[in-house]
Amino acid sequence: MPLCYFHRPLFLLLCAFAALLTALRAAGWFAVRPPPRLRPFANLPWVQAEGTVASGFNPKRPGVRYWLTVDRVQHVVDGPVRVLAYLDPRLPAVPRLRPGQRVLVEGRLRLPRWPRNPGEFDEEDFLEDGGAAFVLHGRKLSILDRPVPLLWKPWSWGEAFHRSIQDYLGKRFPGEGGIVLQGVILGTMDPLAMEWRRIFQTAGVMHMLTPSGDKVTLVMGWTFLAGSCLGVPVLARMLAAAAAGGFFLLVVGTEPSYTRAWMMALGVFWAWERGRVSGGFQAWTLAALATLALDPRSLFAAGFQLTYLAMFGLLMVLPSWVPPISWPAPLRLAAQLAGVGVVVQMMVWPAFANYFGCSSLVGFLVNMLLVPASHLMMGVGLAAWACATGSAGLLERPLAWAAGGLAELFAALCRRAACLPWAAVTLRAMTPAEIAAYYLAAFGVLTLPRRRTAAVFLAAGACLWAGGWLWGRWGPQRVRVLCLSAPKASAALVTLPGERHILIDAGVAPAALRDIFRFLGVRRLESVWITGPDPSRWKGVAGLPRFASVGEIRVAGGDSPDRRWPRALAALRAEGIPLRRLADPAPGGEGAVLLRHGRVLFSWSAGGLTVRDGRGGAYCIMRFPSGTAPGECPASRSFALVREGAVQVVSNGKTISITTQRERRAHGPPVL
Fold this sequence. Notes:
Elements: H1 9-26, E1 44-53, E2 58-60, E3 63-73, E4 76-87, E5 102-110, H2 123-129, E6 132-143, H3 153-172, H4 176-186, H5 194-203, H6 206-209, H7 213-229, H8 234-252, H9 256-274, H10 279-294, H11 302-317, H12 329-355, E7 358-360, H13 363-389, H14 393-418, E8 424-426, H15 432-446, H16 451-474, E9 479-483, E10 491-496, E11 500-506, H17 510-520, E12 524-525, E13 527-530, H18 535-538, E14 549-550, E15 553-555, H19 564-574, E16 579-581, E17 593-597, E18 600-605, E19 608-612, E20 618-622, E21 638-640, H20 641-644, E22 647-651, E23 656-660, E24 666-667
Parallel strand pairs: 4-6, 11-13, 12-14, 13-15, 15-16, 20-21
Antiparallel strand pairs: 1-3, 1-5, 2-3, 3-4, 5-6, 7-8, 9-10, 9-22, 10-11, 17-18, 18-19, 19-20, 22-23, 23-24
Helix pairs in contact: 1-10, 3-4, 3-8, 4-14, 5-14, 7-8, 7-9, 8-9, 9-10, 10-11, 11-12, 12-13, 12-15, 13-14, 15-16
């Protein structure tokens, strides 16, 4: 792709618009605040909410998910306000629900939950990106006797087709075959199949089973090809393909990956008709601008970032990376498929790190086989559904047999690939500077064989990365203490200069610690300190070696009444981890564990953590607001972990800065 495309006014406008939206989000312009008149109804055990269905159904673990536009709660008329609703799938009215219908939902209305610890699912942020203020758990549903508005009719028809395909696949293909076919055709998966979800993610095929532009592109391509076989004029074929893709968009939903494929296809058709060479890149730019103009919040959604980054990389590479003509056709096709997989993996790597915490290493190899198979599977599955709907049972049986066989083969290959020891790698969340350095280096690779341009990008990325590394190595020496939030547990992660980590108490469940460590990039603990015999301080320690290497474990004196404690110590000794006695580093009273950094003192005791800065101030971090405050805490500010989430204290040896997970802003002067 010529680099002059980056100087096009539309592309520059897109970059400026994205930067403006990012600045507005940082300033809080996209924050969703519940209406004051409706907020008192949050967390009541039972409310009545009336509104309009604004989306199709999506099966999730809490229930069938819908987006609603609510304008009345109980007797209060206010709004409209967007609400995320989870409905009980056993309700008789749920199968008849269509977009545009007026409904009365009864159940519990609540505010979105915020993550208590780093790495947890941020429901508050998810609802903010969707423009919603509340979550509604519906236990009773009534469809009001009002016709669907004319503008909602196409969405209602698309939802009816979606329901028909979903019901057919669920009944005709039980087990993992139905899960695969639902994902390949509709982009949805059975919410109960968590084991298979992990297998598919490790194998690197989740993009085939979730919303992706391939589905819309295939429908448009099949329509265009059918028109070509029938001798239909080119313009009529384009219009028919656009109509088919648009209707399929209503069937599967208006996710950014679907709309991107449809709008890009329209742009390519228009460029083809006008003889424009840069049609693909211009179509990509116009699709992104149109998506952000219609829904500015979509810029911060994972689906938008993944689909547009992947397509941007392909547009840069595909025109210049062509296998030699002398290669055999099968080898050229395999090389092209492998190249596409590598480029897509390269472009979405930071997004995978920040959103999912892992990435597949075998994905580009598995995709060489399963991407063409998924396209064939989608066509055969839709044909089988069409024959079953049209009472063509004689044709439906062999098509269903073929679709089921392909789905089972798909699942078997994914399971085989996921069992490989090097199938996937755990990733930590990347900082903005690391993301910038990564993409500078990636663009340097993608611009090859333009050596000068590639050298500039690679050098810029290397300089940015080296600057960050040098700053972390020889910059201000800081100590970070992250007190984790758990109702019945105690744990704190201490990060010393040089990225050395100490875990003080391990009462949090191993699964929660694994997610936190993965998000923070902690792979090794220099030491683990267990400060007391209570199970709330050690019950997660036995699971630590599964996801992090442990240098040593120091245990305070005292016997635990719990019989699991000796077994946990024996298991740690069997892992080859040395066990030592925990002694107080400095005098601090009975039962206190002290850590000093310059003039800042951290003191753990039964009541919580006391932090004393170099200016005489004292801060207390307790588990509960009503907890016993140790030391000087009653006379200073206190933080409650259950109420405010995890609390991070950053020290430069003289002053401290405290950040709570809930407010996500620093209390105190900045520590550089």
